[in-house]
Amino acid sequence: MDILANMKEVQERVAAACKRSNRDPKEVTILPVSKNHPAEDIQTLYDAGWRDFGENYVQELRNKHDELPDDIHWHMIGHLQRNKVKYIASYIQAIHSVDTIKLLHTIEKEGRKADRVIPVLIEVNVGREESKFGVMPDLEDCMALANEALELPHVKLRGLMTSAPYYDDVEKDRSIFRKLKELLNDMNAANDQLQLDVLSMGMTHDFEIAVEEGSTCVRVGTAIFGKRDYSNKGY
Ligand SMILES: *Cc1c(COP(=O)(O)O)cnc(C)c1O
Questions:
Q1: What are the pLDDT digits (tens) for 118-157?
Q2: DSSP secondary structure letter of residue 166
Q3: CA triplet 101, 32, 233: central angle to 5 degrees?
Q4: How many whole angstroms from 102 Cα to the centroid of ligand 1?
Q5: Where are the domains of the chain?
Q6: Residue 232: its pLDDT value, please?
Q7: pLDDT of residue 171
Q8: Residue to mutate (ligand 1; options 77, 95, 217, 225; most atoms within 8 A of CB)
Q9: Which residue's alpha carbon is nearest to atom 10 within ligand 1?
Q10: Residue 217 belongs to what H/E stretch?
Q11: Which is the closest atom of ligand 1 to the Cα of 228?
Q12: Sign (positive/negative) of CA torsion 122, 123, 125, 130?
């Protein structure tokens, strides 16, 4: 497994998708998703200059945070239970998976204790899948959270996140990504205090389409680190 070669290929595919859609590659962050992969795989990318990494599970994130260099920017992209916010509040770079007002309030409380403003994204279940977390893709539901976030001084809402369903035909994901971007534009139009500018969308199987549809952050695991080993209980 040559992680650096894989990363180079992902970068090239992002650049090509930007070219096809007349976008500047600088607008698109590649967020390597390192869940279920060992700390040394992260260190490999770190040594090549990468600093931002996405994790799904609080305990695994904490272990890696303790083990790896302090200047890594950790992103929480998985479902987050309220009673675990306190473990990551003092250093988390961004929480991509906010889907309830209660969770927003907990992040506010822990942000206040840590004396910092925590950047967050609202997770939207654009495909309305029963198995997934996230707010329904309706303007009212999203604005209820967004307007609440504006009242919280230790929370900074930056944008929206989604995971598209696993369609066999990835072109179907296009409408999901379009819908998320439309929602972001509608939210900004509904309240000009919002100024949302982050669209966290696109994974290994669909990140090129997500880039073509306006993604500013692709969360890529398998294409960079290889298949996840779920028997790896090291974390
Ligand atoms: C695991 C995960 C990813 C990365 O998935 P790959 O298909 O391996 O690229 C991205 N986003 C979320 C929310 C994930 O849980």
A1: 999 999 999 999 999 999 999 999 999 999 999 999 999 9
A2: -
A3: 85
A4: 25
A5: 3-225
A6: 57
A7: 84
A8: 77
A9: 219
A10: strand 217-220
A11: 8
A12: negative
For the stretch 168-205, pLDDT in tens is: 888 889 999 999 999 999 999 999 999 999 999 999 99
**Number of the ligand 1 atom closest to the C-alpha atom of 207:** 9
Tell me the C-alpha distance between 2 and 199, whole Å: 29
CA–CA separation, 213 vs 201, rounded Å?
9
Q: Per residue, what are the HEC states of 89-110?
A: CCCCCEEEEECCHHHHHHHHHH
* pTM greater than 0.90 (yes/no): yes
Asked which of 78-87, 121-130, 166-175, 214-223 is least confident by mean pLDDT, the reply is 166-175
Q: CA end-to-end span of the chain, whole Å?
A: 21
Secondary structure class of 138 (helix, strand, coil)? coil
CATH code for 3-225? 3.20.20.10
**Alpha helices (H) in the chain, listed in sequence order:** 3-20, 39-47, 58-67, 85-88, 101-114, 139-150, 173-190, 207-212, 222-225
